[in-house]
Amino acid sequence: MAPNNGGLWRVARGQNSEIYNSLWFNSSWLRAETPAGWRSTHGLGLAAHEGKPWTFLRGEDRLLHTASYLGQWSNATLVSGQAAKPMDEPTAASHKYKLYVMYRAARD
Predict the structure, then answer these.
(1) Confidence category of residue 19, pLDDT binned at 50, 70, 90
(2) Fewer beta carbons within 10 angstroms: which end of the chain, N or C?
(3) How far, in Å, CA of 92 to CA of 99, rounded?
(4) Over the stretch 73-93, which tens digit does the pLDDT of each residue have?
């Protein structure tokens, strides 16, 4: 969960590996559309940074992906090309104008 612009975002991975996300705003949960094909093998990292939520996920390809939300989710892109290979779920935090993501690296 991450606070952003007066709301509270949450993202979760279902048992079917699909991603679900919603926003708590004006005393109710609003579901945000998740792009088709988004799937993760583990939980997701979420942080608010520069006025928008960012999510980080370990894709089914075992690589680290990221996307941000500004009215709709951006396309998920790889973090550091194919170099970032998390073992499990990542975590994220925004601090002093920088966005950090942490994860345990998987051994190939």
Answers:
(1) very high
(2) C
(3) 7
(4) 998 899 988 888 899 999 999
56-67 tens-digit pLDDT: 999 999 999 999
pLDDT over 70 (residue 108): no
Q: Which of 50, 47, 44, 78 is nearest to 64 (CA)?
A: 78
Check: CB of residue 29 under 8 Å from CB of residue 23.
yes
Distance from C-alpha of 68 to C-alpha of 93, rounded to nearest angstrom: 14
